[in-house]
Amino acid sequence: MALLEIRDLRISFMRRGRPPVRAVDGLDLDVDGGQTVGLVGESGCGKSITSLSVLGLLPKRGVEVSGSIRYDGIELLSLNDDARRSIRGREISMIFQDPMTSLNPVVRIGVQITEPLRRHKGMTKGAAMDAAERLLRRVGIPAPRQRLGEFPHQLSGGMRQRVLIAIALACGPRMLIADEPTTALDVTVQAQILDLLKEQVVESGTALMMITHDMGVVAELCDHVTVMYAGRAVEAGNVRDLFAHPTHRYTAGLLAAMPRLETPRDAPLNPIPGSADQKLPWDDGCAFMPRCAAATAACGRGLPPMQSTGWNAVGGGLDEEHLHRCLNPAPALAKKAMTP
Ligand SMILES: Nc1ncnc2c1ncn2[C@@H]1O[C@H](COP(=O)(O)OP(=O)(O)O)[C@@H](O)[C@H]1O
Ligand SMILES: [Mg+2]
After folding, report:
1. CB of 38 within 8 A of CB of 214?
2. Which of 38, 39, 47, 184 is the most buried (most CB within 10 A)?
3. Considering only CA atoms, which residue is closest to atom 6 of ligand 1?
């Protein structure tokens, strides 16, 4: 049993006089300790809503959630608010995209880091300050004691993201959920933050759920990846298999659009034409159909299930873990350059 097990998760937003928005529709996902699992897809495909549901942070009204989210064997969806609060921050921590809006601009860094330590661990102010200093040092912030007395605007974007990670790590959580944590940062700082997260997973055996729209981040960091499109998983597998042999056309498109070192600078990027807004309701077939060059009439009739791709590019033979939801999968291609 994995540390986090999401099964058949469905999240709908109710709208007055109109059909509900199905933001997540039948998602399965496992994350285990010491493992990094990527959740990938374009903006609006349901990644953030999925992470908020794990943390119990979805709006209380107008949202319907069903399925199961088990953490360490505990069903999170049936916990009351108090029980959820005690899991959040202590067992499962979240790192959000934008450190400036996640940090309180008028509260000193030290107070923001010591708050979870005092609340969850009952530390005294002095002990919590010492722990906060160690945490800042741990995430690579120079002169940590001095930084504790500063305000968020006195730090660079990269330093603020490090502070957020320090807050997330404060109570020694067994699981981290990072929602596009490097999107707002420049490439060098992005690489440093990814290294820091990697270190945390390897050294502390933390489970990491990495939400991103960037296949480069997946290649860099993840063991396993689930690709979402319009609220549903369309392909899932271990990263080496999925990069070596992407089978759903959307995954293949994401990988083809990924800039690579050997790509000439003036070569056009290969973005997938269209946008996810054109999606059909999934009931009528594959939601990617309007954008898919390989679509046939059959793709518009009924929902294909997640099934084995039948490929295991790395180990050979049938791979029960590499799954996709596609009637006309991409043919086997030698995609050596894509292997991370
Ligand atoms: N409060 C809300 N009310 C209605 N729809 C929402 C709300 N929040 C999110 N959604 C819808 O849920 C879908 C998934 O959103 P989100 O998880 O934020 O996407 P992502 O993180 O992948 O960009 C979007 O299509 C969005 O329109
Ligand atoms: Mg999001």
Report:
1. no
2. 39
3. 13
Task: Judge whether 52 lies within some domain.
Answer: yes
Total domains present in the chain? 2
Residue 54 and residue 106 share a domain: yes
> Which one-letter DSSP state was computed for residue 263?
S
* Residue nearest atom 17 of ligand 1, based on CA coordinates: 46
CA–CA gap between residue 255 and residue 250 (Å, rounded): 9
Measured by CA distance, the residue closest to atom 24 of ligand 1 is 44
Asked if residue 40 belongs to a domain, the reply is yes
Q: What would the pLDDT profile of 236-259 be if each residue is shown by its tens digit?
A: 999 998 998 899 999 999 998 877
Q: Which ligand minimizes its atom distance to the CA of 62?
A: 1
pLDDT in tens, 66-107: 999 999 999 999 999 999 998 998 899 999 887 777 899 999
Ligand 1: residue of 16, 21, 177, 213 to mutate (most ligand atoms within 8 A of CB) is 21
Same domain, 102 and 148: yes
Q: Which residue type does 22 have?
A: R
Which residues form the domain of 127? 4-222
Spell out which residues have Cβ within 5 A of ligand 2, the ion: 48
- Read off the pLDDT of residues 109-151 as tens digits, 9 standing for 90 and up: 999 999 999 988 999 999 999 999 999 998 999 999 999 999 9
52 C-alpha to ligand 2 centroid (Å): 10
CB 235 within 8 A of CB 286: no
Please tell me the distance between residue 105's alpha carbon and the centre of ligand 2 in angstroms: 22
How high is the pLDDT of residue 331?
A: 79
Which CATH number does the domain housing residue 116 bear? Answer: 3.40.50.300
Q: Is the pLDDT of residue 335 over 50?
A: no
Query: What ligand 1 atom has the least distance to the C-alpha of 59?
Result: 1
**How far is residue 91's CA from residue 206's CA, in Å, rounded to a whole number?**
10
**Do 217 and 255 share a domain, yes or no?**
no
One domain, residues 43 and 160: yes
The residue nearest atom 19 of ligand 1, judged by CA position, is: 44
Ligand 1 environment, Cβ below 6 A:
13, 21, 23, 41, 43-49, 59
Q: Is the pLDDT of residue 337 over 50?
A: no
The residues facing 125 across adjacent strands are none
Tracing tokens 């974007």 back to the chain, one arrives at 157
Residue position matching structure tokens 């043919």 = 331
Q: Are residues 98 and 148 in the same domain?
A: yes
Question: Does the pLDDT of residue 317 top 80, yes or no?
Answer: no
